[in-house]
Amino acid sequence: MAHLSVTGISKTFGTVPVLVDQSLEVEQGEFVALLGPSGCGKSTLLQIINGLIPADSGRVVLDGEDITGRTGSGRGMVFQGADLFPWRTAIENIAFGLQVKGVGKAERLERARHYLELVGLRGFENAWPHQLSGGMQQRVGIARAFCIQPSLLLMDEPFGALDVQTRDILQDELVRIWEAEPKMVLFVTHGIEEALYLADRILVFSKRPARVLSEIKVPFARPRHDDMKLDPEFLRLRREISELLRHDLEA
Amino acid sequence: MQLGRLTTNILGIVLVLILWQAVGMHLGDALVATPVQVAKALPETLTDPEFWPALGLMIGQMMIGYLLALAVGIPLGIAMGRSRPVFTVVKPWASMFIVVSAAALVPLLIILMGRGLLFRTCIVFVATLWYVVVSITEAARAVSPRLLDVAKSFSASDFQRFRFVILPALYPYLLIAARIGLIHALRAMVTAEMFIGAGFGGLLNNAGLDLSTAPLFGLIVVLMLVSAGATELLRRVAGRAAPWYASRTGG
Ligand SMILES: Nc1ncnc2c1ncn2[C@@H]1O[C@H](COP(=O)(O)OP(=O)(O)OP(=O)(O)O)[C@@H](O)[C@H]1O
Ligand SMILES: [Mg+2]
């Protein structure tokens, strides 16, 4: 049974406390959005869970295994700017995680091709990253993370650098792919609508040091459609979260 | 595009030749032989029984020092770029040697090791090594920390990060260093040969004593062609071996 349990995480940079005793749980197949003001510590929390930043204290347990301070095992990360390797073609980028694990060339390329097609990039196997648009690059970034079949997907503002239309398209694509291969997701975003549209549950964080102001269960059934953004309940939740964040910033 | 560049190149060369011709006709061939006079003298130079052996020997002997400089300079440069202690120890020497021109070292090296192959190899090695070290160091320091983090989050080991991120990121710079290093090597070799009056440098010395400067300019033109030909060859190797780089820079 897939499960993420983060307990008592604290982190101080120099003398600045960024995270104080933060905990969160994610259940199997759950899509959780982390929402909060800029600089509150969302990326820091995500990188601690990812193992790239060491926490001062606290534990990260994934599927029963203590993975505190270690990268890899069970996690796939999608980065904000896609951060593809410019010297690898699209399919080689997607296959990267498998290559690191020592999967043979024929097998890893075959598995990478599956994900390349899943994100709608058939025909672009051999394109270099600089030949792809920002949206296509991020599709490769998503495929690269899915390709290692992690039980937890970490995404730090993956669509933050994209224009609105491309972002809307990729949100739908992400949900489609995730429904095909459900897994736990932690999705950092600034966008209230994005969080409501994508997530099962939203953790709203305060300004630094980050603590959870409110935990919101998103009541909309899946599959979701664009017109839910006009639903009165959607609008009410959007206003509620936005006021919550504003009050916190003014406090 | 490609054709346009070629046309501008040819136009540039033609302009220089016209200018050269004008200056030469004004000053006379004892000072500056005109391109026409050089072209007339060239067949005689090229059929001189000493010419081809001298050129071959120079290039052959230069290659030893040049290849040694690459073999030592590339690993040393990478080590300096990626390791603080190595950088601290080697950097002062690199800065010191890189400002000393090859010509300044020639007398000292002759005293130390005579005029033979050892001396020539040594002067080429010293003149090329520090250039290679410094440029590779800069490139190695500039390897994207974000891409290293991407690799790490896919649980790449230190060796895998070297093999899959640092080396490919350095690849274009290795080829640039090899190209510019070759020019440094050739210059040092000619300087050394002129000092000891042997080989191609010896021919240059003798031509300098001639009443007409036509043969001297002929030799200089040959030298320029050798250098331009070799760097063009390396540029093509680079374009073939690092297509992501070549197609991005349009080279
Ligand atoms: N390596 C570091 N050294 C020092 N301070 C850091 C470091 N990384 C982050 N910080 C600080 O920690 C705080 C939280 O940073 P973090 O990147 O986690 O914020 P964030 O919530 O992701 O913000 P944004 O929404 O703008 O991405 C910021 O004040 C930042 O300046
Ligand atoms: Mg952030």
Automatic annotation (TrEMBL), chain A:
UniProt keywords, alphabetically: ATP-binding, Nucleotide-binding, Transport
Transmembrane regions listed in the UniProt entry: none
Keyword Transport annotated: yes
InterPro entries per the UniProt record, alphabetical: AAA+_ATPase, ABC_transporter-like_ATP-bd, ABC_transporter-like_CS, ABC_transporter_ATP-bind, P-loop_NTPase
Pfam families for the chain: ABC_tran
GO molecular function, one term: ATP hydrolysis activity
CDD domains given in the database record: ABC_NrtD_SsuB_transporters
SMART domains: AAA
Domain ABC transporter: 4-232
Domain of life from the UniProt record: Bacteria
Family label: Belongs to the ABC transporter superfamily.
Protein name as catalogued: NitT/TauT family transport system ATP-binding protein
Organism for this UniProt entry: Faunimonas pinastri
UniProtKB/TrEMBL annotation, chain B:
Domain ABC transmembrane type-1: 55-235
Keyword Transport: yes
Topology within the bilayer: Multi-pass membrane protein
Domain of life: Bacteria
CDD domains registered for this protein in UniProt: TM_PBP2
GO cellular component terms, semicolon-separated: plasma membrane
Regions that span the bilayer: 54-81, 93-112, 118-143, 164-186, 214-234
SUPFAM superfamilies linked: MetI-like
Keywords, in A-Z order: Cell membrane, Membrane, Transmembrane, Transmembrane helix, Transport
Cellular localization per UniProt: Cell membrane
Protein name, UniProt field: NitT/TauT family transport system permease protein/sulfonate transport system permease protein
